[in-house]
């Protein structure tokens, strides 16, 4: 895939970039190694001051960066502005809290004495150069949620971004540079996917984090494992949205629409499978299809647009194939199921609701990365939980119920990295984010995320 900015609303190639050759990659690796040697010795106060300045730069450049993201991958402009603001918020959150999150830990006095030591502490030290392999769907947020904690811990970062968002990648590199970070602390590598293995294997790279497809995760994990290097993976999701009889159905429908079409339906944590109890199935499904049908599809730079194009031509083709397979096997498209009229130049697809989905259909098991929802009827809580878990993924989940016992049951039994009750799954710097099963391993954000790329060091002193 060429490294290029291609506007998905028009199909126009805006700019093409020449990939870095081996010499350019070597130069940046050497620079990263040198930067870490010095940056690891900086204080939390020094790192926090830099990160706050980076947040200020994001605030100042919000409109420019938002437009860049929208032109590169098609998210509605309002959502793009919100993404920039969220990144600045996360930077300030880590700048404020990293000293406490990485403070020395002191074991119980009795355990220290039992070990024969006069004192014991646990210290968090940076690992070194961390490579981030990032996707296009949240081209700023996905990077910042790695970069902010990694830099506050004293690591330095190399970014291999998706090939269709090079301008966003370079914009973030510029933000860190203009914030005053020492040269080499954060660098973008304009390289193709085939060059990633060589970077992971380089002795100067200590760890790798990837957000992306299951296939990409397998490849990166295999190389990192072969090199015995730390890796964190956040992969696909096919999150359930469970609606039980005690739910506020109107509120659930309103949230369901946003949860499915956020980022044009291209979000790993977007609700994708709507599992609705028989008692409220008819009311929920009819209202949900009506609301999805009413969404405004169009130019993502227009303020009134609610759903923009798919980011790539192939992405739309994948969605079309999944829907066609389901309909051919008996599913019903309650709305959508086609390209919109009058938007022939871009990669648009109508918000779609499918009912009558069965395990024989591809969409039952595969992630639908676009504005397509599948709705299932469940006769009981047991059946709803079984359907929720009938997926190879386990990123997050949404459950609508006011019953405390049902909530406890879902916390216990739903196989996911998160359970969100009566609201939509969202990431926040204070809470750990990640999944189980084929959604990956490790955690981002919170104290768990900042500690992923630290050397957890036991310091034992004898009497």
CATH class of the largest domain: Alpha Beta
Separation, N- and C-terminal Cα atoms: 61 Å
β-strand percent reads 15-25%
Strand order of the largest sheet: 11-12-13-10-9-15-16
CATH-defined superfamily of the largest domain: Aldehyde Dehydrogenase, Chain A, domain 1
Number of individual domains:
2
Instruction: Give the averaged pLDDT, no decimals.
Output: 97
CATH topology of the largest domain: Aldehyde Dehydrogenase, Chain A, domain 1
Class per helix and strand makeup:
alpha/beta
The strand count comes to 19
CATH architecture of the largest domain: 3-Layer(aba) Sandwich
What count of helical segments does DSSP give? 16
Biggest β-sheet: count, sense, barrel?
7 strands, mixed
Poorly predicted residue ranges: none
Evaluate the radius of gyration: 23 Å
How would the global form be characterised? Answer: globular
**Share of residues in helices:** 40-55%
Keywords: NADP, Oxidoreductase
Family: Belongs to the aldehyde dehydrogenase family.
Domain Aldehyde dehydrogenase: 3-459
Protein name: NADP-dependent succinic semialdehyde dehydrogenase
């Amino acid at each position: 895939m060429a490294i290029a900015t291609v506007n998905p609303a028009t199909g126009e190639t805006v700019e093409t970039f020449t990939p870095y050759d081996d010499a350019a990659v070597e130069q940046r690796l050497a620079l990263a190694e040198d930067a870490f040697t010095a940056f690891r010795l900086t204080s939390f106060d020094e790192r926090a001051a830099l990160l706050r300045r980076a947040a200020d730069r994001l605030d100042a450049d919000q409109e420019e960066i938002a437009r860049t993201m929208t032109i590169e991958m098609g998210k509605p402009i309002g959502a793009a502005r919100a993404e920039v603001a969220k990144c600045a918020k996360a930077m300030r959150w880590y700048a404020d809290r990293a000293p406490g999150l990485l403070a020395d830990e002191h074991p119980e006095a009795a355990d220290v004495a039992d070990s024969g030591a006069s004192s014991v502490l646990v210290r968090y030290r940076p690992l070194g150069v961390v490579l981030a392999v990032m996707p296009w769907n949240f081209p700023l947020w996905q990077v910042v949620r790695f970069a902010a904690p990694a830099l506050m811990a004293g690591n330095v970062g190399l970014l291999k971004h998706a090939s269709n968002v090079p301008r966003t990648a370079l914009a973030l590199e510029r933000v860190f540079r203009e914030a005053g970070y020492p040269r080499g602390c954060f660098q973008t590598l304009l390289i193709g996917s085939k060059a990633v293995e060589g970077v992971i294997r380089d002795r100067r790279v200590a760890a790798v984090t990837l957000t992306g497809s299951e296939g990409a995760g397998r490849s990166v994990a295999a190389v990192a494992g072969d090199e015995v290097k730390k890796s964190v993976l956040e992969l696909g999701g096919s999150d359930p949205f469970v609606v039980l009889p005690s739910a506020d159905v109107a509120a659930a429908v309103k949230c369901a629409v946003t949860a499915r079409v956020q980022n044009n339906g291209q979000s790993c944590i977007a609700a994708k499978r709507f599992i609705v109890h028989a008692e409220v199935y008819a009311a929920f499904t009819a209202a949900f299809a009506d609301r999805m049908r009413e969404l405004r599809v169009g130019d993502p730079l227009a303020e009134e647009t609610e759903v923009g194009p798919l980011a790539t031509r192939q992405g739309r083709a994948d969605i079309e194939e999944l829907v066609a397979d389901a309909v051919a096997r008996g599913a019903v498209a309650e709305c959508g199921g086609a390209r919109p009229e009058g938007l022939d130049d871009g990669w648009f697809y109508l918000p779609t609701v499918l009912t009558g989905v069965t395990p024989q259909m591809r969409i039952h098991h595969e992630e639908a990365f676009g504005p397509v929802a599948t709705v299932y009827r469940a006769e009981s809580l047991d059946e709803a939980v079984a359907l929720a878990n009938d997926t190879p993924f386990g990123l997050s989940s949404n459950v609508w119920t006011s019953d405390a016992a049902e909530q406890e049951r879902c916390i216990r039994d739903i196989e996911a990295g998160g359970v969100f009750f009566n609201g939509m799954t969202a990431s926040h710097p204070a809470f750990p984010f990640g999944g189980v099963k084929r959604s990956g391993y490790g955690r981002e954000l919170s104290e768990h995320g900042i500690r992923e790329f630290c050397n957890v060091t036991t310091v034992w002193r004898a009497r």
